[in-house]
Amino acid sequence: MDVPLPDPLRPRIARVRSTHREGPEVCTLELETDQDPPAGFAPGQFNMLTAFGVGEVPISFSGDPAEPRRVRHTVRAVGAVSSALVRLHAGAPLGVRGPFGTGWPLPEAAGRDVVLIAGGLGIAPLRPALYQLLGARSRYGRLTLLYGARGPRDILFRRELDAWRTRTDLTVEMTVDHAARPWHGHVGVVTTLIERARFDAQRTLALVCGPEIMMRFAAEALGAGGIAPEAIFLSLERNMHCGIGTCGHCQLGGLLVCRDGPVVRYARVRDALRVREL
Ligand SMILES: Cc1cc2nc3c(=O)[nH]c(=O)nc-3n(C[C@H](O)[C@H](O)[C@H](O)COP(=O)(O)OP(=O)(O)OC[C@H]3O[C@@H](n4cnc5c(N)ncnc54)[C@H](O)[C@@H]3O)c2cc1C
Ligand code: FES
Q1: Span 52-67, average pLDDT
Q2: For a substitution probing ligand 2, which of 241, 252, 260, 264 has the most ligand atoms within 8 Å of its CB?
């Protein structure tokens, strides 16, 4: 007898195993599903999460792909659905569809230097890539993480960042836009860190995630530093509905971000990103 294939539009029921407050309005949810074996995911991919009775939104994986049973998503409360997700407590049910979309090009990064550039919540979709890079550290050249947050209290994954900063095989540079309370680090937008970073442009791959304006400026600064647009990858955000390339909600020029992205080569979207409101 044929086993029916899962319907990609029908959410599976999952439960919140635990929650961890990361910062103002930001929470990491660890989920448990009854999927056996677990679906697994590639760094950069996303799930569609349903807050029952409220709605469904795309949220990137933020956990370690080497631990597929620990599905983690880091959510910022910006509107109805994301706020409902952030309010969930351990044991609460939610809907999950995915994983969907393209991942960070880690196979392409083998033997090369990798610069990860995160703005604000953009550190969450990059964290699985960093776990994977560090998990097979000898495969890659120099690794650099440049992270910018609005202020000191907006810095996410603080304890992990502190641990990463003690490593000798990873360079971590952080900056904040404004520092109202004691802060001994760099102040300025994240692109100012690119100018200070040391990388060999010819052999570097750049992974960039954050607000779109920040990604555009970062890509331009990387280009000015000699990195080709083909070696720069961005994670795009668009409003999504189906998540599987059928409804057209997430169109950007000739791309459907849910299917052809969210991770795309800058060379492919540079012109579309220059057109406001596209
Ligand atoms: C591929 C992909 C991955 C994503 N990964 C994550 C993730 O890991 N964590 C996460 O928290 N969010 C992530 N997002 C964004 C998330 O999907 C949106 O924040 C969410 O859809 C907002 O829905 P809402 O109903 O809560 O708010 P809405 O009612 O849709 O929006 C409320 C207000 O917030 C603004 N808004 C909407 N989205 C954003 C945004 N992304 N940033 C700032 N303001 C916004 C709207 O313009 C509106 O003013 C991702 C989006 C995509 C496309
Ligand atoms: S969300 Fe439907 S096509 Fe992308």
Answers
A1: 97
A2: 241
CATH number at residue 63: 2.40.30.10
Q: Whose CA is nearest to atom 21 of ligand 1?
A: 57
Q: Which of 235, 253, 273 is the last residue of a domain?
A: 235
> Residue-wise over 222-241: b if at least 16 C-beta within 10 A, else e?
bbeeebeeebbbbbbbbebe
Does residue 277 register a pLDDT over 60?
Answer: no
pLDDT tens digits, one per residue of 247-261 = 999 999 999 999 999
**Residue 144 per-residue DSSP state:** E
Between residues 126 and 272, the one the model is more confident about: 126
CATH label of the domain that carries residue 194: 3.40.50.80
Q: Is 116 within 8 Å of 146 (Cβ atoms)?
A: yes
Is pLDDT at 118 greater than 80 in this prediction?
yes
Q: Which domain holds residue 57?
A: 12-100
Residues 165 and 115 in one domain: yes
